[in-house]
Design a protein that fits this description.
By secondary structure, the protein is of the alpha/beta class. The protein has a 6-stranded mixed sheet, with helices on both faces. Strand 7, helix 4 and strand 8 form a beta-alpha-beta unit. The two termini are 24 Å apart. The relative contact order is 0.21.
């Protein structure tokens, strides 16, 4: 099967390798690019760090690593260890699971730093604030949408040579529909 993968390049290549191992041909056509923002993090100290995306981890390289770090899943937890965090707790799920894990682990008046992307859901901050925590958000990265359909994707679409497409975010799907609509 020929599968279109529209994730940002690094994640798309990892997905393509997994698809190839399953016998599929992956066409990598990133529709989003992950870039660091110029925003400065809020002043610490913080009682814990909440990380809901592996894309946020590079921005933590210069942070104090003594506070517990709560990761959305295993991959993010591994990356947190690579940048020097030692007390890492992985929710192995989604942002709501991170909120539950932090709520069970921390005192209610704790000050938390949520390191996130510009476009994000309300969780886990909404649940943590309702539970009595102070949550400050550091927008460490953003996903910049492609301005045009990547050439490899356009050729495959016009040639009708795709069997499937995988998408990992609503924004990627919206970008794909807008860009493909523009080129017919």
């Amino acid at each position: 099967m020929r599968v279109l993968v529209t994730r940002p390049r690094a994640q798309a290549e990892a997905t393509a390798a997994r698809l190839a191992a399953l016998g599929h041909v992956a066409l990598v056509a990133p529709l989003l690019e992950i870039v660091r923002t110029a925003e400065r993090p809020p002043r610490g100290p913080f009682d814990a760090v909440i990380v809901t995306s592996a894309n946020a981890v590079p921005a933590l390289a210069v942070f104090d690593k003594t506070a517990p770090a709560f990761a959305v899943g295993y991959r993010t937890a591994l990356l947190l260890r690579e940048v020097g965090f030692t007390d890492i707790r992985s929710a192995e799920g989604d942002a709501a699971a991170v909120a539950k894990l932090a709520s069970r682990s921390l005192k209610r008046d704790a000050r938390l730093l949520h390191v996130a992307g510009r476009d994000r859901k309300l969780e886990p901050a909404a649940s943590l604030v309702r539970a009595g925590f102070t949550v400050e958000t550091f927008v460490a990265y953003e996903a910049v949408a492609a301005k045009a359909v990547p050439e490899t994707m356009a050729i495959a679409l016009h040639g009708g040579s795709l069997d499937a497409a995988v998408h990992y975010s609503r924004r990627t799907v919206e970008t794909a529909l807008a860009l493909t609509g523009a080129v017919g």
